[in-house]
Structure prediction request, 139 residues.
Amino acid sequence: MKISTKGRYGLTIMIELAKKHGEGPTSLKSIAQTNDLSEHYLEQLIAPLRNAGLVKSIRGAYGGYILGKEPEKITSGDIIRVLEGPISPVEGIEDEEPAKRELWMRIRDAVKDVLDNTTLEDLASHTDTGESDAYMFYI
Prediction:
């Protein structure tokens, strides 16, 4: 399963809104500038998020967007499903032979578990500890 720019940028929008939760509306322009993204593209992504109730728009000179729910009540799975559709590693799982069908279902369930158990609050409060799983070799 590959998450497209729709899902990736949609998560970016939502994480930025979660970081500013309780501070009032945030403009897409500021999110676009902060993350070096196309404001026009973000405008296309915000509509389905708004229709799903994940964000609310605030009109006016100091308007913008706020989260539709508390950050701990929105999961990354909620966002990905709105922007990418159902979570499935392959099309037509039911047509596969039993062994492969079982594998695809286990992969799907593992991905769903990670997405559905990672909240916006988790993502917005994440700090980079600088630790890496990579090995460091000294010569």
About this structure: The radius of gyration is 18 Å. The longest strand covers residues 55-58. The CA atoms of residues 3 and 84 lie 7 Å apart. Strands lie at 55-58, 64-67.
